[in-house]
Structures are given as C-alpha cells and as structure tokens.
C-alpha cells in the first residue's frame, strides 16, 4: 500500500483546508484509513479515522465538529480526504495519512479505532500551519 498526502499549507485561524490522501495497491477495500498529526515536541496523535466498511468514523475530541473525513474509490485508487474547518493555531502540525488492514476475518471491518500503533502503512506528512 502506498499513500500520498497533499493539500497542506498556510491558513489563517478560522479558515479551512482540505487534505487529500491517495492510496494505491490491492484489496484497499479491506483497509481502514486515518489522519494523524504531530506538532513539534509532541507525540503523534490520531485526528480522524474511517473504517474499511466506510460506515464508521472516529475523531479526536479536539477536532469534533470541525473536521470531516471521507473516502472514495475510483478504479483501484482510494482517496481519503480530511476537510478541516474553523482551524485553530493548535491545529498546526505535520499531518500524515495512514492505513491498516481490517478485513471481515479480523473482526475489525467496521472499526474506526484511531491508534498510532494500529496503523501498518504511513505516507509522508504534509505541513499544516495555522496563523493566529
């Protein structure tokens, strides 16, 4: 699985930004995807995750009501987006796209758990900077 994130940049507080992650590979229908971020001097944390089934999402408390993640599929390429609204200076961080295989046999097909340690594949990060 290869992941390519894009869409980061500089935005003023209160503004919006959309991140996009293009995932390529086989059997992507059985992968959950997530967005994670890491600010300077802090540990990487889960921001938003979506299940393999696409029926379940989970969000960090700090972004609930402001961020939305969706996934789409065209041919064998999956695109996962993170719509970020009402951005705050504390959202400034390098944002990463990640994936974790969760098929029906694993019993986690419908899981949107968003733990760093669960994710098997990582893309390069994209910087999001929110100026106050």
SSE blueprint:
Layout: E1 2-6, E2 9-12, E3 17-24, E4 31-38, E5 45-50, E6 57-59, E7 67-74, E8 77-84, E9 93-101, E10 121-122, E11 126-131
Parallel strand pairs: 2-11
Antiparallel strand pairs: 1-3, 3-8, 4-5, 4-9, 5-6, 7-8, 9-10, 9-11
Structural write-up:
With 132 residues, the chain is an all-beta fold. Helix content is 0%, strand content 51%. It contains no helices and eleven strands. It has strands at residues 2-6, 9-12, 17-24, 31-38, 45-50, 57-59, 67-74, 77-84, 93-101, 121-122, 126-131. Strand 4 and strand 5 (45-50) form a beta hairpin. The model has no long low-confidence stretch (mean pLDDT 95).
Number of helices: 0
Determine Rg (CA atoms, Å). Answer: 14 Å
Shape: globular
The low-confidence runs, each spanning 5 or more residues with pLDDT under 50, are none
Q: End-to-end distance, in Å?
A: 37 Å
- The oligomerization state is single chain
Helix and strand pattern: EEEEEEEEEEE
Protein structure class: mainly beta
Task: Tell me what portion of residues adopts beta-strand conformation.
Answer: over 45%
Percent helix, as a range, is under 10%
């Amino acid at each position: 699985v290869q992941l390519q994130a894009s869409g980061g940049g500089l935005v003023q507080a209160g503004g919006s930004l959309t991140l996009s992650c293009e995932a390529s590979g086989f059997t992507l229908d059985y992968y959950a995807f997530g967005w994670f971020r890491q600010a300077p001097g802090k540990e990487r944390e889960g921001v938003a995750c979506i299940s393999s089934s696409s029926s379940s999402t989970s969000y960090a408390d700090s972004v609930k009501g402001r961020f939305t993640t969706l996934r789409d599929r065209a041919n064998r390429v999956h695109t996962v987006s993170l719509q970020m609204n009402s951005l705050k200076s504390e959202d400034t961080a390098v944002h990463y796209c990640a994936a974790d295989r969760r098929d029906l046999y694993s019993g986690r097909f419908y899981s949107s758990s968003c733990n760093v340690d669960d994710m098997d594949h990582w893309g390069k990060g994209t910087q999001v900077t929110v100026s106050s």
